[in-house]
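Field: COMPLEX_INPUT
Field: COMPONENT_COUNT = two
Field: RESIDUE_TOTAL = 327
Field: MODE = joint
Values follow.
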Amino acid sequence: MEVLLGTRKAQSEVIGLLVIVIILIFMGLIYLGFSNILDSGSLGDERQSIEAENALKALMNVEMDGYEGKTLEDFIVDCNIEFNACETMEEALKEAYRVILRPETEFSFFANVDGEEIYSFGSCDLGLFSSYVFVRDGVSYEARLKLCS
Amino acid sequence: MKKGQIHISETILVVFVVIIIILVGVIFYFRFTIARNEALPYELSERQATIMLAKAVNLDEIACSEEDCVDTAKFLPFKRVLAEDYDRFKKIFGRKKIVFRIIYPEPEESVKDVECGVAEYIQVEYPENCGKWTLYEFNPENELGAKISTVVSLYFPETDQYKVGRLEIEHYGSIVRY
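Field: COMPLEX_OUTPUT
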C-alpha cells in the first residue's frame, strides 16, 4: 500500500515537473516570436551618426549667410580673441542649423583651443558627438557638435 | 483496475493538454516569424540605401580629390556616363532615386526645385539659378518610395565656394537585381 502511494506521488511529481517545463518552453517560444518582430532601430541610429558627423564638417568651410563671408573656422578663431565674436558665432550657428538640420533637432556646440574649451552653448544630456580639428597660425582649434537624442 | 484506468486517463489528459500548449506556442512563433519575414525585403532595401548614404560622398566619380566633400562640377559628367551605361548602374544602384540639393545658404524659393542641368550651368548666375541635381532615378513600377537623407558638403570649383547640401536617397520596394 505504501509502495503504491509512493509511486503515485512520484508520478504526480514527474508530470507536474513536465508541465512546468512545457510551460517554460511555451513562454520561450512566445519570447522568440516577439524578439523577431522588435525593431532594432539600428538603421536610424546609423543615419543619425552620419548626420552628426556630416552636419559639422559640411559647415566648416561655408561662408555663413549674412556674416560678411565668414566661415565657422573664422568664427572660432575670432571667438578665441574676442567674446563678442563668440555670441555672433552662436547666432550664426543657430540660424544655419535651423535650416540644415531636421526640424526640432536640438544641438550643442563646443569650441576648444589647444584642448581647452573657450565657448559652448546648447544643453542636451544624451546625443551623438562629432568633432572637427583644424590648425591656424600654429594654434589647434576643435569644433564639436552634439546632436541631441 | 479502476484506479489504473483513472491513472491512465489522467496521464492521457495531461499529455493532451501539454501537446495543445506546445502547438499553440509553435503557431504563435511561426506567425511572428512570417510577419517578420514579410517586412524583410523592405528592411533590406532600407539597409542598402543607408549604406549607400554613407558611401555616396566617397564615390570617386563625384567626391572631391582632397577635402571631404562632393564636387558639383563632376555631377553633369557623371550623369552623362550614367546615361551611357545605364544598365550597369541599374545593377549597382537598383530601384532608387538619388538627389543632391543645396540647403545652405538657402537658395531662393523660385530655384529650390530647379534642376541644375547644362543650361543652368553655363549661365553667369550659376549656382544661384538652380537648387538640385538628380543623379539617378529608376522606378519602373512607379512605386511609392521611402526617403532617407544626410547632410553633405558641396564644393563649387567654379567659384571656389562651399555650400551645405542634402543627399536624398529614395528607395522603392524590395531589392531586386537587374
